[in-house]
Amino acid sequence: MSDSSRVVRVASGQGFWGDWLEAPRRQVEGGQVDYLMLDYLAEVTMSILQKQKERDPRMGYARDFIGAMESVFPAVAERGVKVIANAGGVNPVACAEALLDAAAKHGVRGKIRIGVVTGDDILARLDDLMAAGHELKNMDTGEPLSTIRDRVMSANAYIGSEPIVEALAQGANVVVIGRSTDTALTMAPLRHEFGWAADDWNKMASGIIAGHILECGAQSSGGNCMHEWRTIPDMANVGYPIAEASEDGTFVITKHAGTGGRVSVPSVSEQLVYEMGDPHAYITPDVVADFTSIQLAPDGENRVRVHGITGGPPTPFLKVSIAYRAGYKAVGSLVYSWPDAMEKAQMADRILRERLDNLGLKFDQVLTEFVGATSTHGALAGDGHDAPEVMFRIGVRGENRADIERFTREIVPLVLNGPPSVTGFAGGRPKVEEIVAYWPALLDKRAVSTAVTIME
Amino acid sequence: MHIRLLDIAHARSGDKGDTANVGVIALKPEWYPTLVTYVTRDRVAQHFSGQINGGVDRFELPNLHALNFLLHGALDGGGTLSLKTDAQGKVYSTALLRMVIDVPDAEAVAAGLPAFA
Hints:
The complex is a heterodimer of chains A (456) and B (117). Chain A has 456 residues and is α+β, with helices and mostly antiparallel strands.
């Protein structure tokens, strides 16, 4: 365990559910890697999965994962690459069963040993937890969960690396988990390989920061990178990031030779500040990492060395992500062309709002944006005068589904009964969507226990 | 001298609930002190007045030559509730880089800052 020259390679293969289907296979075929981490869960994903599970109890996991695994079966079954994925969503056991079926079809059943981590899903325990005094107050507003209890769709605690390490220790070569922290997917294999003590805070923090850099897929290797974006090579073949980690907690971020994209100090810096709060305290269940301690240094072409990281003990809480129903929304749009595109779009907005008022419809919010002029930068962008085209985009949200539905029928008529030179209505009426809102809360760690089951 | 942030920094943003974060990174290490001095919390709050409903926090990361801003109340309640095109605050980064700061000429010349006409 103390061979200081040993390097463990963790490759990132998905940054969210919907990410590039080619990435996992390219990561295991493009060169040597020891682990493949696949992050499928964003906040909104859990509630989508919960809806799918309500319709069909065998669903509720990220189905893309099965296809991704089929593309990497040779690497996993023959070459020993291990996979860590939070594809389990709200139904990790069903996910593992589907994976075993796929393994059977490909003749590799028996070579796939899955560690299934459960315990993050606290939906069924909510009332008991509340009765035991856990208020699950909204971290932003301070309100207790009881105010929206009847509308809750899913509730999951963000769990740390511990149960994933346990699954690896039990010989799993694939670990399927639900709502773990994204960073734990990278941290766990490093803890497992190097045997880092749970209170070796600096090494633990290093593992978390490696995880933060990998968790968004290509966002650290040239994707969505603003710095000198024109010159980033061969983005069609972008390489996803790989962390080459050493026992002492230092690591190098790189990508496979021959791939596109760029790993540089600026590309890694951009990912480090992504979704960042107080950099002195990046809080995870395993450790609180200090992002102001991170040192980056170029280490050859497409290699950035990361070192100097410090951290401290975690808080006694786990963050809980609760999704609840919060009414409905719909967004529609029309495109007005030059001349006077902005004025026409503004007139369409006035006409439509007057019609909505005349119908007596009730909304909690009506938002108009002029895309191509002021939608993302507001007044900072000027007034949109003389734009070649402007998209009039209007959204409403409210509790009454019928009112939202009526709104969706009021937009297209403007094509014939509103301002001139209008297009862009081929999609027809917008759809009414149910809103799933988020309720972030803290829960005493002792109230959550995880379990590891091996399925093969 | 007028200096536009776009010419001296790059940035990335994302969401945390109803808050958007913007990390601003100096294009050259020697330009980081300019960010620290002139891209203040109040200046950023003023820049986004009318676009966000809450306050602004600022954190310094000298190791990355970066500042991190939290723009509270930027997303009309958060990513899934928001009706905005930029519901997850992905381009508040570029909106911040529109900011033009005023740096005394001697200081700007000494740091080699590019002037913005």
